[in-house]
Amino acid sequence: MKQLRVGFIGSGFIAKFLAVAMKQVRNCELTAITHRGGAEELAAYAKENGLGDPKLFKSVSELCKHCDAVAIFSPNYTRLAIMEEIAEAVKQGAALKGVICEKPLGRTLRESRRMAQLARGAGLLTSYFENQLHMNTINNALEQLRPTQRAMGDFTLARSTEEHAGPHNAWFWDPVRQGGGVLSDMGCHSIAICRHILTPEGKSPTFLEPVAMQCDTSLLKWGQPKYRKQLLETYGVDYSKTPAEDFATGIVTFRNPETGQLVKGQFTDSWMYDKQGLRLSMDGLGPGYAMEINSLISPSEIFIGDEAAEGVADAELALEKSTASRGLLAVQPNEADLYGYTTELRDAVNSFLNGKDGFLDWEYGVEVTFLVQAAYMAAERRQTINLTDEIVKKELESYQSLISRGKGADVLFG
Ligand SMILES: NC(=O)c1ccc[n+]([C@@H]2O[C@H](COP(=O)([O-])OP(=O)(O)OC[C@H]3O[C@@H](n4cnc5c(N)ncnc54)[C@H](O)[C@@H]3O)[C@@H](O)[C@H]2O)c1
After folding, report:
1. pLDDT score of 25 more than 90
2. pLDDT-derived band at 324, boundaries 50, 70, 90
3. Which of 10, 97, 343, 413 is the most exposed place for a label (fewest CB within 10 A)?
4. Neighbours of 225 (CB within 10 A)
5. What is the pLDDT of residue 254?
6. d(C-alpha 127, C-alpha 304), whole Å
7. What is the pLDDT of residue 353?
8. Is the CB of 131 under 6 A from ligand 1?
9. Contact (CB, 8 A) for 232 and 125
10. Is 178 in the pocket of ligand 1 (CB under 6 A)?
């Protein structure tokens, strides 16, 4: 097989971003898309840009017959039923090689484990899409620092924040369908990237052992009456009854199993960042050296004055999750590449074509869910969670946060 035929399940925000990324990836073709919201536009985009001539399919099992790999880009609450259909399609003879899943792999540890079991049970290769571990800005900085690290020792502290003004679709705001609030949605990125920065050169993504988790979840902006009303009117979600956190921050501690050294990842995520748009910011601190990334700093910027701005309100023209259409705005020349979408797709395509799992497999996705759920547990209990305690680990296997059960008022209004 020289060319990987890929099918997209979902044609919303992330599917479109991955289609943009696909323009920069060789040896793959978009051959199938599930026939739901946005599918026609995505298929037209694919055709115009030489990505393929995708056919639209009403059912996942039909779609599976027309590709070598499927990518699950649908909402979090649809994951498991879709993976069950994929596994059944393989049983019925669909010749699939691999399956990709966007973050998070599941809303709970139980869901994530089931996803991985179904994929492996069907004999599929897996790739977990955590784009930030593929960001060239981060990996190039790490590469540059490797000789220094060899001389001085590894990073001891990584910090990561992902923030914007709030998601673009109702289901993200609904803690039951999404699996929580901003911690479930974006904490999975920030915890994973901290671990990546801290991981010593040449070691696997799960080399560092999780030791402890501290976390605080709060509702700072969207619980206020004015913004609650806005959420209810725009998305039909009532944060007076079923709130989710719009701010989360915490510290995860890891242990290097070879040296015993303890290192920390400090993560912060919010849906209340009222600046120009999405900001990813990471830094790593080691003995005598450091690295820092801020995705809002671009070599390119534009200015739109008040008089000129009237015609372009809400155009999201400059940047993902843009909040302004006037003033001085950063423009990223290649956002799909900046956030790591290009590199993660290239990795999945090359890995599957070579009969291997992606750099991040679904077992890795399960590990991320474990850490995110431990963060919810820490915030809920207002305690540091000991991740080496076998009783706690067992509890996490069946744990479901209060917020994701629609009982966020007990945690966030207490
Ligand atoms: N890596 C990132 O930075 C990033 C960014 C955004 C979203 N995501 C993830 O991608 C996934 C999708 O998010 P999105 O922003 O594209 O959401 P979206 O709401 O914009 O799009 C969802 C798409 O899935 C389709 N869909 C809904 N139910 C379906 C079902 N049962 N079967 C098949 N298709 C169905 C919808 O019609 C729509 O096309 C989520 O899991 C989200 O966490 C990741």
Report:
1. yes
2. confident
3. 413
4. 9
5. 98
6. 41
7. 98
8. yes
9. no
10. no
Token couple for 321: 């999750």
Distance between CA atoms of residues 43 and 35, nearest Å: 10
* CA–CA dist 11, 24 (Å, integer): 19
* Cα–Cα distance for residue pair 228/309, rounded to 1 Å: 28
**CA 167 to ligand 1: nearest atom:** 15
Q: Structural domain boundaries of the chain?
A: 4-132+342-360, 135-293+369-412, 299-332
- What pLDDT, on a 0 to 100 scale, did the predictor assign at position 1? 60
Q: Which of 233-237, 272-276, 322-326 has the lowest mean pLDDT?
A: 322-326
Which residue has its alpha carbon closest to ligand 1 atom 6? Answer: 14
- Decide: 288 in ligand 1 pocket, CB within 6 A: no
Nearest residue (by CA) to ligand 1, atom 3, is 131
pLDDT band at 308 (very low <50, low <70, confident <90, very high): confident
Which of 9, 14, 57 has the most ligand 1 atoms within 8 A of CB, as the residue to mutate? Answer: 14
Cα 306 from chain centre: 35
Mean pLDDT confidence for 51-74: 98
Q: Determine the CATH number of domain 135-293+369-412.
A: 3.30.360.10
Of 376, 400, 374, give the one whose Cα is nearest residue 389: 374
75 Cα to the center of ligand 1, angstroms: 4
pLDDT score of 322: 78
Per-residue pLDDT tens over the stretch 130-173 = 999 999 999 999 999 999 999 999 999 999 999 999 999 999 99
Nearest-atom number in ligand 1 for the CA of 16 is 16
Residues linked to residue 290 through DSSP beta bridges, in sequence order: 285
Tokens 């070691």 -> residue: 203
**Scanning the structure block, which residue is given the tokens 């925000």?**
13
Burial class, 336, CB count within 10 angstroms (exposed 0-12 / middle 13-18 / buried 19+): buried
Q: What is the pTM of this model?
A: 0.96
Residues 374, 387 contacting (CB under 8 angstroms): yes
Whether residue 75 has its Cβ less than 6 Å from ligand 1: yes
The pick from 34, 74, 191 for probing ligand 1's pocket by mutation, whose C-beta has the most ligand atoms within 8 angstroms, reads 74
Per-residue pLDDT band for 328 (boundaries 50, 70, 90) equals confident
CA of 104 to the centre of ligand 1 (A): 11
pLDDT digits (tens, 9 = 90+) for 91-138: 999 999 999 999 999 999 999 999 999 999 999 999 999 999 999 999
